[in-house]
């Protein structure tokens, strides 16, 4: 595991975008695993700027996203499909048909999850999976649990996650209670993993993930077993390490 400590969010975003750019430049038809949340927004800004500057070409890139809220469709501004379109896809020349997010509108969890697992099997190995980390150590929406879930599955969001994510919604009641998420097995199959973390509210989770025991109670701790995981974190997020 490689840990890169940076000063602040701007440096984090530039560093993460440079790593992703390296993947795209060395393999123009790469498959990127993408994440939502506030952590990667600056990284997406930097990637969009590199595209504007003619440095990056996304025309052969494919992407698979980690997760989606159950019940929200892509026109809902809180859906992760909407987030990805707004923060990255509409700003670069990726073919939108090559971008995949679990279908939050499908009420049939088994059908939705097995379709996404089939997609992940068929599309090929993810070259680089970008991750944020929840304040409770979750990755994607793999919440603390008593076992690691391998494949895409439907989760009941924990109260901690509902509290952490309510800032994006008009009210706490509006936060969906369920999500579809790639499992830990799906995530760990990526050739490389890039986790970005900033801010004091991530310090405990990051310390547990990087230095604590590998346990499903802190899902991000599984990254200790990945052969090519890179952590880019700012001083605040690293303050308990
Ligand atoms: N499902 C997402 C995660 O993929 C993300 O990493 C996490 C942290 O979000 P933020 O970056 O806004 O702190 O929030 C959500 O729960």
Automatic annotation (TrEMBL):
InterPro entries, A to Z: Glc/Gal-6P_isomerase, Glucosamine6P_isomerase, Glucosamine6P_isomerase_CS, NagB/RpiA_transferase-like
Enzyme class at the top of the EC tree: hydrolase
Swiss-Prot/TrEMBL catalytic activity: alpha-D-glucosamine 6-phosphate + H2O = beta-D-fructose 6-phosphate + NH4(+)
Keyword rRNA-binding: no
GO CC, alphabetical: cytoplasm
Keywords: Carbohydrate metabolism, Hydrolase
Active site annotation, chain numbering: 67 (proton acceptor), 136 (for ring-opening step), 138 (proton acceptor), 143 (for ring-opening step)
Entries under Gene3D superfamilies matching the protein: 3.40.50.1360
Entry GO MF terms: glucosamine-6-phosphate deaminase activity; identical protein binding
EC number in record: 3.5.99.6
Stretches of the chain forming a coiled coil according to its record: none
Annotated signal sequence range: none
Gene Ontology annotations of biological process type: carbohydrate metabolic process; glucosamine catabolic process; N-acetylglucosamine catabolic process; N-acetylneuraminate catabolic process
Ranges of residues in domain Glucosamine/galactosamine-6-phosphate isomerase: 11-224
Listed Pfam families: Glucosamine_iso
Pathway: Amino-sugar metabolism; N-acetylneuraminate degradation; D-fructose 6-phosphate from N-acetylneuraminate: step 5/5
PANTHER family assigned: GLUCOSAMINE-6-PHOSPHATE ISOMERASE (PTHR11280:SF5)
Recorded family membership: Belongs to the glucosamine/galactosamine-6-phosphate isomerase family. NagB subfamily.
Purpose of the protein: Catalyzes the reversible isomerization-deamination of glucosamine 6-phosphate (GlcN6P) to form fructose 6-phosphate (Fru6P) and ammonium ion.
Protein name as catalogued: Glucosamine-6-phosphate deaminase
Source organism (scientific name): Blautia segnis
């Amino acid at each position: 595991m490689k840990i890169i400590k940076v000063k602040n969010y701007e440096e984090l975003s530039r560093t993460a975008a440079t790593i992703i750019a390296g993947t795209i430049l060395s393999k123009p038809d790469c498959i990127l695993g993408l994440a939502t949340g506030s952590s990667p927004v600056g990284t997406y800004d930097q990637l969009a700027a590199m595209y504007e500057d003619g440095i990056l070409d996304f025309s052969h890139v494919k992407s698979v996203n980690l997760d989606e809220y159950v019940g929200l469709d892509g026109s809902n501004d809180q859906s992760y499909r909407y987030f990805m379109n707004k923060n990255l896809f509409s700003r670069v020349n990726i073919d939108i048909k090559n971008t995949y997010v679990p279908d939050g509108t499908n009420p049939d969890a088994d059908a939705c999850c097995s379709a996404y697992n089939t997609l992940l099997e068929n599309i090929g190995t993810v070259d680089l999976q970008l991750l944020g980390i929840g304040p409770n150590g979750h990755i994607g929406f793999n919440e603390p649990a008593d076992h690691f879930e391998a494949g895409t599955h439907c989760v009941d969001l924990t109260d901690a996650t509902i509290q952490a994510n309510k800032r994006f919604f008009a009210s706490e009641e509006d936060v969906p209670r369920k999500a579809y998420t790639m499992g830990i097995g799906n995530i760990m199959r990526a050739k490389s993993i890039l986790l970005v973390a900033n801010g004091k509210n991530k310090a405990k989770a990051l310390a547990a993930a990087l230095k604590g025991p590998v346990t499903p109670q802190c899902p991000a701790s599984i990254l200790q077993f990945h052969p090519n995981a890179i952590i880019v974190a700012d001083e605040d997020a690293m303050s308990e390490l």
